[in-house]
Amino acid sequence: MRDRVEDRFPCKLHEIYQATEGYIASSCSHGNLHINEDILIVEKEWIDKESGRFAPIITDLNRRTLPIIRYRLNDILIEEKASCPCGSHFTRLQKIEGREDDMLWLPHSTNGSLVAIFPDLIRRAMYICQTQVSDYRIAQHGGVISFTYKSDDAAKAEQDITATLTELFTGLNVDKPEINFNVGIKQDLMKKQRRIACYQKPSFVD
Ligand SMILES: [Zn+2]
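Above: query sequence and zinc ion SMILES. Below: predicted holo structure tokens.
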């Protein structure tokens, strides 16, 4: 979407990351996202410190009504450790990955403990299938994943998706779930579009 907008209008697309809970981050002159640490305190609850993934706990310093004090959002943000050429020391974000309930969970192949599969990994894997799959939705209900998609060649698409996901899950050392395929996406315009969603985690197998 960014490429399309920047292509159509000769300008750089900047981002604002804002929620009911506050105005959290915005792009600087170099197009990098920084947390608005002049108006917020953002504490990091690490989800995966190595990759820089955390859930923000925000305290708004400006509000006089509806106080937001150490309020945890269920978003997944990725910290960018490199400093920004703009000179700002406000925490830089590599990206806003999504929400925690966009993560899929699958049991580890050897010990059965649940492993989080970040939405970005799935999006990147699915990028490979884009010649066959023009759009998709993934919904997890326990050990079953419903895969709804748009394609002109369903048989080839399912073959590609199965191969791609099998490779991803094998690489992550998790059990391959049962995948149900459905062609055709019906988007309820009154509902927020969620491409990847976990509605129910599989049960932990010890
Ligand atoms: Zn910057």
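Residues 2-100 form one domain.
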